[in-house]
Amino acid sequence: MTASTSSVITLHINGEPRTFTVDHRTTLLDALREHLELTGTKKGCDHGQCGACTVLLDGRRAVSCLQLAVAAEGRAIITIEGVADGERLHPVQQAFLELDGYQCGYCTPGQICSALAVIKEHAAGWPSAVTADLRPEAGPPALTDDEIRERMSGNLCRCGAYTAIVRAVAQAAHEQSAETKAVVA
């Protein structure tokens, strides 16, 4: 008896279950784009080096070109198509739009998904390679330009919109922090 090379899987994408048959060797990126027609996630290098294919997997960023679709079964996947709330853009998307955090736009979906995770990681107090004070009692580091650059370093922009990307992430983080404080108060 020969082993099957494909399986029927269910991926939970943007809050919706999607069931389909996939070859075991299919990456999550190719499953999203080719099987589910979610083409917002871009194929850049196909080697996990550019970040264009970044999605959120259980709330953490992942380069979908290195993740097998069968290994993502049962996990919550957010793509760029699931970031906005209907017609209302997410604050990160709005900041990218307002501050020109894109030029050609090819890397923008991956940049935005990564920025969502960066803001969440920072708010949770996770240090980066440039965080000066790692003591727990020091609290979360300030989200400086250097912190943002380091945390976003896995996402490349061939157009060189880095300055605007850093400003957009900073603005969105500030707005989300203000919203959180308003809800708590």
Describe this structure in words.
The protein is α+β, with helices and mostly antiparallel strands. The protein has helices at 28-35, 91-98, 108-123, 145-151, 162-184; strands at 6-13, 16-23, 54-57, 60-63, 76-78. 34% of the residues lie in helices and 15% in strands. It has a 5-stranded mixed beta sheet, with helices on both faces. Helix 2 (91-98) packs antiparallel against helix 5 and helix 3 (108-123) packs across helix 5 (162-184). The termini are far apart. The mean pLDDT is 93.
How are the SSEs ordered, and which strands pair?
Elements: E1 6-13, E2 16-23, H1 28-35, E3 54-57, E4 60-63, E5 76-78, H2 91-98, H3 108-123, H4 145-151, H5 162-184
Parallel strand pairs: 1-5
Antiparallel strand pairs: 1-2, 3-4, 3-5
Helix pairs in contact: 2-5, 3-5
Feature tags:
185 residues, alpha+beta, five-stranded mixed β-sheet, 5 helices, 34% helix, 15% strand, globular
Shape descriptor reads: globular
Strand elements, count? 5
Give the oligomer, counting copies of the same chain as homo and different chains as hetero. Answer: single chain
Helix content: 25-40%
Give average pLDDT, whole number: 93
* Spatial ordering of strands, largest sheet: 2-1-5-3-4
Structural class: alpha+beta
Range of strand content: 5-15%
Instruction: State Rg.
Output: 17 Å
Our measurement of the CA-to-CA distance between the termini, rounded to an integer number of angstroms, reads 64 Å
Put the structure in a nutshell.
The protein is 34% helix and 15% strand. The protein is an alpha+beta fold and 185 residues long.
